[in-house]
């Protein structure tokens, strides 16, 4: 197939989101024999402007027009079989998909935060031919807004995430990721229990912001941010629920700050590449909870993350939070292991650190499963099979 791709959120390679998804999607599509035509339109200007402000509307309209024109030109040279994007509402006018459809080109828009931040794609999802979502239980959100969802989970590239044999494992556990939601509570439980743990990523040190991906303004800690959070809570949730949410956010933030000195002792800054980091530890941990609505004070829910495929692909002894969806991809207890509570996390981490033979069994079995079934090539084959695109 000839596939037009608009999945880069910036054309500037200095930004990680400039090559994050293209670095995963494009090599896999190439290995499957597809030709990928990459959009040269920068999505960042619209993404960084206040949504629905006059400047944002103008920028999004220009981005939409330019991308549609790119597609027209590429299609005129040789027919395009599929338009593949990773757009938020902020990136692209829904009517732009209609223009692409008039050319006879089906569209697929990928999105991987459909549980906690579905509102970011709710306006454009009904206009695409297929709304590709990674989380199994997000399907009702798409159905309710009139979209046509297709569930295909994320994966890992074995050429990037791979076992390394020239690294000596330490008898310690590690977590790689930013401080967010209840991750610091889980890390603190391990540290307080004497489990040797190293933390990589932003937010863990004394000089870092405690939370870096929470949509709630309350988490920045300034007076103006708290006032903004209060206004949002009251306007969106009403007086009673809004006041209750504000109190929960304040209490959670207060407890979060108390943990910083403890966690800072385990903070190791930015990780090297994931393969090297995972190879250096006996146990690799994942903390997978997110806020149900993307803001602190809502319910905490676990879901499958990219790390659930990247970790095993690196041949790790991998321990992650339990959810029913993960059981569709691994045999729990034999290929990876899971925990439901902080106490179970502590107990299982201790077990694998003190039972190297069992840890090695998990590494080998998880790697074998991931290497065969959880590559991006397999996911695209599944996507094309479920949508009928290319048939």
Q: What keyword list fits this structure?
A:
single chain; 391 residues; Rossmann fold; 2 domains; 5-stranded parallel sheet; 14 helices; 13 strands; globular
Write structural notes for this entry:
The radius of gyration is 22 Å and the shape is globular. Helix 6 links the parallel strand 5 and strand 6. It is of the alpha/beta class and 391 residues long. The protein folds into 2 domains: 165 residues, Glycogen Phosphorylase B (Rossmann fold), CATH 3.40.50; 155 residues, Rossmann fold (3-Layer(aba) Sandwich). The chain has a 6-stranded parallel β-sheet with strand order 2-1-3-4-5-6, with helices on both faces. A 5-stranded parallel β-sheet has the order 8-7-9-12-13, with helices on both faces. It has a two-stranded antiparallel sheet with strand order 10-11. About 3% of the residues have low confidence. It starts with a strand and ends with a helix.
